[in-house]
Amino acid sequence: MLQPHLEHPSASRGAPRAAPDRPRTALIGALVALSLLGATGCAGADSGPRREAGAGGVTFESCGRTVVLDRAPERVAITTDAIADTLFALGVGDRIVAKTRGESAPAPELKERLAALPGLGTRNPSVEALVAAGPDLLITDQVEKVSGRTGSPSIAELEGLGIATYVVGGGCAADLTTDTSGLEALDTDVRQLGAVFGVETRAEALADRLLGDLDDVRRRIAREPGREVAKVSQVGGRLYVTSGGLSDDVLERAGGTNVFADLPGQFAPVDPEQIVARDPRAIVVDDFTATATGRRDAIAFLKRTFPTVDAVRNQRILVIDAAKTGARGSTRPVEGVAEIARFLHPNTSRPH
């Protein structure tokens, strides 16, 4: 219940076979200023993607590394289903050739297409599976997944195989104890990926639409007081609450006041007593399965565990697709802002 797949693939290594022809990658090694990373996430919006003159190539920034491709990627691997949302919205989703079984459920309209793709592992991709899939580019939501630890390949190892790595905004932190950027990183990713794939016009339109959707929510709730809210997840039998990062930004843009925003990092482990003590007026629960069963199980758990909490007593509980609150590199958190705003401030919802 409420639990993503967190197991790591086997750390075993076989002799990888030769990688197929793909865009040549080169790492220039220019470090992006830390202040810039803090403001824009991994991508570095001030430098931005650049088309290489006369060569049809592209340069992009990722976690302090400058990556040069001699042509747009034709085969892409992803480390979470939710990244596919943005790629399909950009019109390049058919270039996805493999994926890991990530923490979030795929969008319903993409579920069958993504299920048919070769798997790269449970969470972190394996070298063997990547070589077999033959991607030009690996897009990941967390640099830890390409750190060379727990059975995953390193960025340098992937480079040696001719596979470039793009870490989406907010994913450059080594672990979840570090706070990171919010939804502003998605705008940078959409525009930069548009240049990487040569679909700049479509990317600009998508980025502008997403900003428009966020502005619409902001205008509708502008006169509403903040509603005290806690966002809860259960992973590996432990309770976690959102404390910072993308998920906290989604709550705030939806008109919520996060009662656990004072805790460090992006997610903080808590005991049930801490939730009881802070007594939130509303609770948002991450459902990593995004199913009716997951929703029922989540509500039953809250009723069992927190019968005296204001949100539970007054049935102010929203069980939401986890990708809509915290999937980096996905368009779904923008949908999450609108959904949580309707939940917290029902009188401001537009008529359908």
TrEMBL record:
Residues 1-22 are annotated as: Disordered. SUPFAM superfamilies: Helical backbone' metal receptor. It holds the Pfam family Peripla_BP_2. Residues 1-10 have a biased composition (Basic and acidic residues). Residues 75-348 form the Fe/B12 periplasmic-binding domain. It comes from the Bacteria. Belongs to the bacterial solute-binding protein 8 family. This is ABC transporter solute-binding protein. It comes from Streptomyces griseus subsp. griseus (strain JCM 4626 / CBS 651.72 / NBRC 13350 / KCC S-0626 / ISP 5235).
